[in-house]
Write a structure and sequence with these properties.
This protein is mainly α and about 325 residues long. Helices cover about 45% and strands about 0% of the residues. It contains 13 helices and two strands; from the N terminus they run H-H-H-H-H-H-H-H-E-H-E-H-H-H-H. A two-stranded antiparallel sheet has the order 1-2. Helix 2 crosses helix 5, helix 10 packs across helix 12 and helix 12 packs across helix 13. The protein is globular and about 55 Å long.
Length: about 325
């Protein structure tokens, strides 16, 4: 083969590689703003309206949506694995101890059904999970967070690795910071995300170890009688809905009151107490207690990072027909 022929051969080879690379990039843009602008232009508005309707009927749903994103995206990937039911071969993440008290998954299905009526087979459950969390924050008075979409759904539960990735309320602050750091979330981001404890409630099973057999001396003594009234049993009945509101002052408002509470030793869980006392996190707690704008800014940043944790995009994963079961393979 002559030199000119070799030149054209390698030129064609290079062009082919470039075209293939460009094609693959075009097929998988990853997460982008307004991913559904062509395929389902009303997608985000449908999620917003559904969340408004469901919140009007059941205000506690907002807490559930907010908790969903943390429990799903923190466990290796934002792929809606949290929503999958148990099968003969795998246990659902929903049934793990770390998921105790999680509920209202059926409302994700209601949003999915509304989207299927408008755009069948287009919008993923993982995008619904993330967008509904965003809208839940707004319903509670928090900031609106612009989010990228384009996630696809995983096909398997991650129950077997859940405890490895999901921070627990009784773990050391070093462990909590390390687990969030593995997702790219820094210390002020961790402090801001835990500000989600501004709303919702803590089940007694999660805090009775601070009340029985002896009251934790770190707790504010003025707050203890209320906690004992709400959690009268050292071993709570798991079937009974016994809980303490995270914030007695503004329990349904997403605000920075949480930080003032934990600085006053009114944090319910150990992670709340540690956040206000650990030298790495306390400066940010004090700053967020003083400035709600700063809290919202850091929460927006950390929430965005969490929502983009290792998603499935392009031809990875699938678009589930129902959020609680993987599609059947033919």
């Amino acid at each position: 083969m002559g030199s000119r022929a070799l030149f054209f051969f390698f030129a064609l080879l290079s062009l082919s590689a470039v075209l293939c690379f460009a094609e693959s990039n075009e097929e998988d843009p990853g997460l982008v703003m307004n991913f559904y602008s062509d395929s389902c232009p009303q997608a985000e508005e449908i999620v917003r309206e559904q969340v408004k309707l469901l919140y009007k009927r059941h205000k506690n749903t907002a807490f559930s949506w907010l908790r969903n994103i943390f429990h799903d995206c923190a466990v290796q990937s934002c792929d809606a694995s949290l929503l999958l039911d148990s099968t003969r071969r795998s246990l659902s993440e929903k049934e793990m101890d770390r998921s105790f008290g999680m509920r209202n998954f059926r409302y994700i299905e209601e949003i999915k059904e509304a989207l299927e009526r408008e755009c069948p087979g287009v919008v993923s459950c993982s995008d619904i999970l993330v967008l509904s969390a965003r809208e839940g924050v707004v319903r509670l008075g928090g900031p609106f967070i612009p989010l990228k979409t384009g996630r696809r759904d995983g096909r398997r539960s991650r129950a077997e690795i859940l405890e490895e990735y999901l921070p627990d309320h009784n773990e050391s602050m070093s462990t909590v910071l390390e687990k969030f750091s593995s997702m790219g979330i820094d210390t002020p981001g961790v402090v801001a995300l835990l500000g989600a404890h501004s709303v919702g409630r803590t089940h007694c099973v999660k805090l009775v170890h601070r009340l029985y057999p002896e009251v934790d001396p770190a707790l504010n003594p003025d707050h203890v009688p209320h906690m004992l009234k709400k959690c009268p049993d050292a071993i709570p009945d798991p079937k009974a809905v016994q809980y303490v509101r995270n914030d007695r002052g503004t329990p349904m408002i997403f605000d920075n009151n949480y930080y003032r509470n934990i600085l006053d030793n009114k944090g319910l869980m150990m992670v709340d107490h540690q956040l206000a006392t650990d030298k790495r996190t306390k400066p940010y707690v004090k700053k967020m207690a003083k400035s709600q704008d700063y809290f919202f800014k850091e929460f927006t940043r950390a929430f965005t990072i969490l929502s983009e944790n290792n998603p499935l995009t392009g031809d990875k994963g699938e678009i589930r027909q129902q959020c609680n079961v993987a599609n059947k393979l033919h």
